[in-house]
Specification:
The chain contains 13 helices and 15 strands. It is α/β, with parallel strands linked by helices. It binds pyridoxal-5'-phosphate.
Amino acid sequence: MDDMLRADFLRYVAQTSPEPIGIEIERAQGAWLYARGGRRYLDFISGIGVANLGHAHPAVLAAIRTQAERYLHVMVYGEYVLEAQVALARRLAHLLPAGLEQVYFTNSGAEAIEGALKTARKRTGRAAFVAFDGAYHGDTTGALALAGNPAFRAPFQPLTGPVRHLPYGETDALGAIDSSVAAVVIEPVQAESGVRIPSIEFMQALRARCTQTGALLIFDEVLTGLGRTGRLFALEHFGVTPDIIVLAKALGGGLPLGAFCASQSLLAVLAHDPPLGHITTFGGHPLSCAAGLAALETLIGQGLPERAARVGDAIIERLAQQAGPGVAAIRGIGLLIGIELESAELTRSLVAKCIESGVIVNWTLNCDRVVRLAPPLTIGDKEVDFALHAIGRSLNELCAGHGR
Ligand SMILES: Cc1ncc(COP(=O)(O)O)c(C=O)c1O
């Protein structure tokens, strides 16, 4: 990296960790990031679940250009009729299960979670929320209150509450959901806790308990939505329809966009008593919606969710074959895959070695023994080979280094 630029990065841009990856990105194309100085890196995390079509997809770029020529921001969300917004909302409504036919657009995932929490409080008149151990829903104070890792909540108390945290995937614990609960917020697959996949029985019992107690069920599909798990929406794996689904990350095709979708009657609570009680200046930006619609049409047109299921299964099989000492488990669904290692040290070292070898992978926030793989859904065979060789080689070297 250019020394001066790196120094200014550290000096002028607020830092989120003591050890940023710090690769200076020149450009990105398909599954590859091109760094200054000529090195390239395979993006095996899709910019953390955003680049489901890879980077700089031509259909998305064309939609951005066309929209940019027409107009950018014109008015606070909800006032004017913006064709790109309407078209994306209509398309989502037709793709989602019945009962999720209206969309409120936001700028980000956390903001969409906040909107969903407010909707639940207003609709039910109740205060409490239920969330799960290991959960990650974003870093605004409402979303953070739901976080399943107490270490991230502790420095920022008091957060929105009360929130009860239940063990993820344990049906016996669902009795704690009662008539004081406005909403239960859950990821249908938890990524940040090390890629945890609950049973169909658990999800169906959760749906039944929410219906019984009048608590709204909110699915956070910020990461799992839009093909990542091998279905367009992860809810399809469980045969469960939530009262609200939250989307973001890949929704904007690489531009910032989030959404919470619910029935028309549920979202109507945001439009009165008082009117304009939940608004946003940039949420549902026409540029993001145009990019998002192009991305969604491409995703569906090319059958990428089905492709993610096939390619994901093949990667899991190959990882399982090559897993040796140091690897405790391999699990995943579609192209959201976790390699569980025997120690946090090994995890950190594997991530560093893979990056040195030109493959970007990362660990998960709430489980320091899992390396997460989440490549673009368009990833090619040669790129998969490249990544699996790098992972295998790195693991062999590390485990040899540990005297195994
Ligand atoms: C499951 C989940 N929910 C919510 C969020 C928050 O989204 P954002 O970073 O866009 O606020 C994330 C971000 O990683 C996420 O993975």
